[in-house]
Amino acid sequence: MKVAVVILNWNGKKFLEKFLPSVISFNPSYSEIIVADNASTDDSIDFLKRNYPQIKIIQNVTNGGFAKGYNEALSNLEAEYYVLLNSDVEVTAGWIAPVINMMDADRSIAACQPKIKAYDNKKFFEYAGAAGGYLDKYGYPFCRGRILDHTEEDLGQYDDSREIFWATGACLFVRSECFHLVKGFDDDFFAHMEEIDLCWRLKNRGYKIMYCAESTVYHVGGGTLNKTSPKKTYLNFRNNLQLLVKNHPPRYFIRMLLWRMMLDGIAGIKFLLSAQFLHFIAVLKAHKSFYASIGKTFRKRKELKKQIITYTTTAVYLHSIIVDYYLRGKKTFTEIDLKERFF
Question: Between the CA of residue 341 and those of 73, 163, 323, what are the distances in Å?
């Protein structure tokens, strides 16, 4: 099989009803569609069997989140490329071919994403991925087309395909041999930032992560966890610290980590002062969980160090995106896209 489009589902019947038809309509002959179900308690499976008997179903025994769910589903699935597609994504005609052609032409590309736009406002980029992901010097993720909570209108400003730091898990094309080479996602992440961790490990192995502007999909976002959810805040803060400890190069590592602790503290105080008490508690819980597992995380760092070919510097922003956004008023990627500030 050339391509396996794998949709991870958890109680998402409403999304399957709405978006699966577009996936089927625009699926090329060399691609198979698979739904991996994370122990749903709704009638997702019955719905699929009744209405789409041609769709292969993989049923995971438990809900291990995005990370473990995909690891289990892909463990025995043979295809040259996996396309990990959120159930709340509307695809478009010809969305697969440009990405596969790009990856076929360059075997150093391990993963790629299309242009991700908002389903509810199709002129704008969508939060989770936009036109490709980056990290700043303190490990904060942002995108071309989305910095923190500010998303841009798509005016063609990011119609150039280019190398990025991370590709979104909302629609992630990944070469199967590369995925299994680095042992897939980290199960301990459960959900959120597991794709950044995966991409960082692949980049440290010498592979490239790309953005393909010739392919476009539309993402609802927040289908499982709304961005206002304290649990989302918890996972984002905890997982971001874990991916930094696992993958950051030795140079400036301690200094970076200390700065991150301070910045997270400021974020927590901001939540408190704005009366977002549950989010303040979520930041505290995230740090508590991070400290409780820090020994395990450092053991992962030690093991990964043996496999690193070179610590990646590509698509790392050599400044603070937090400072740029809040103090310098820079809300768009084009305002900070200065070559001297990027590796």
Answer: 39, 16, 14
Q: Tally the residues of the chain.
A: 343
**Cβ(105)–Cβ(111) below 8 Å:** no
What residues does each domain of the chain span?
A: 3-219, 230-309
Counts of helices then strands in the chain (DSSP H, E)? 12, 14
Q: Which pLDDT tens digits describe the chain residue by residue (343 residues)? A: 999 999 999 999 999 999 999 999 999 999 999 999 999 999 999 999 999 999 999 999 999 999 999 999 999 899 999 999 999 999 999 999 999 999 999 999 999 999 999 999 999 999 999 999 999 999 999 999 999 999 999 999 999 999 999 999 999 999 999 999 999 999 999 999 999 999 999 999 999 999 999 999 999 987 556 667 899 999 999 999 999 999 999 988 999 999 999 999 999 999 999 999 999 999 999 999 999 999 999 999 999 999 998 888 788 898 999 999 999 999 999 998 765 577 6
Cβ–Cβ under 8 Å, residues 203 and 157: no
Q: Please, are residues 173 and 103 in contact by the beta-carbon 8 Å criterion?
A: yes
pTM for this prediction:
0.94
- Our measurement of the distance from residue 191's CA atom to the centroid of its chain's CA atoms, rounded to an integer in Å, reads 9
CATH for 3-219?
A: 3.90.550.10
Angle at 279 between CA 276 and CA 282, to 5 degrees: 155
Burial of residue 202 (CB within 10 Å: 0-12, 13-18, 19+) is: buried
Contact 109, 175 (CB under 8 A): yes
Query: Measured at the alpha carbon of residue 298, what is the angle toward residues 271 and 68, in degrees to the nearest 5?
Result: 75
Distance CA 297, CA 322 (A): 26
Map 199-211 to HEC letters. Answer: HHHHHHCCCEEEE
Q: Taking a C-beta distance cutoff of 8 angstroms, is the pair 60, 39 a contact?
A: yes
The radius of gyration of the chain's CA atoms, rounded to the nearest angstrom, is 19
| Cα distance between residue 47 and residue 182, in whole Å | 35
Helix (H, G, I), strand (E, B) or coil at 35: strand
